[in-house]
């Protein structure tokens, strides 16, 4: 009897300390959800919860704090390429899968929000979606957001992915795809990996060419957005459209 009690006490003594922390954090998180007070849960704690299953026998609190500090934000972290998460952040396949699943779910949720009403009335959701989708990319990417007659999102398509500082796009290709989809308007979006959203001379000339080509087939170009890590530039907002 005494041997059994001693064994139980010994097992308790050797029980990893982080298991109790995980239980308490899960309970705090669920309670915050029910009381609409999730802002009380720190970003690194949310990240801890995501990493729990990837590291079942490890205290992930230090890891969550470290990788979040390196990335700068949760949005930047989850949008990193898998190879970067593996090589630079030393994360295993399970952790990478969890993070990218969160990223994909976030993208889909923002895209659905932008689809529920006219894009021009849900501009913040559109910007959030574009930032999450493109801001952390190390290569320029060019997307076209095709809109219907009510300015609701018909399609979001990546047209080109270029080098670090150049993404070619041709007006005839834009017009052709818009006609195929039956679009009445569109928004062009591309990113600047340099971090500076200021349009280049070629950005301006390309936008003018696309606008002119679209006008010829009675399709509106509402805007051209340039997305950078911490800022964006709107051609329409700055009087260039």
In short:
This protein has 241 residues and is an alpha+beta fold. Helix content is 51%, strand content 14%. The chain contains ten helices and five strands.
- Give the amount of beta strand, in percent: 5-15%
Pattern of helices and strands? HHHHHHHHEEHEHEE
**Rg of Cα set:** 23 Å
- What topology, given as strand order, has the largest sheet? 2-1-3-4-5
Count of individual beta strands: 5
**What is the approximate shape?**
elongated
Mean residue pLDDT: 85
Cα distance spanning the termini: 84 Å
Which regions have little confidence, pLDDT < 50, spanning 5+ residues? 4-10
Report on the biggest sheet: 5 strands, mixed
Number of helices: 10
How much helical structure, as a percent, in the residues?
Answer: 40-55%
Derived from helix and strand composition plus strand pairing, the structural class reads alpha+beta
What is the oligomeric state here? single chain
How would you describe this structure to a colleague?
There is one protein chain. The protein is of the alpha+beta class. The chain is 51% helix and 14% strand. The chain has ten helices and five strands. A five-stranded mixed beta sheet has the order 2-1-3-4-5. The longest helix is centred in the middle third of the chain and has 23 residues. About 3% of the residues have low confidence.
Descriptors:
5 strands; five-stranded mixed beta sheet; 241 residues; alpha+beta; 10 helices
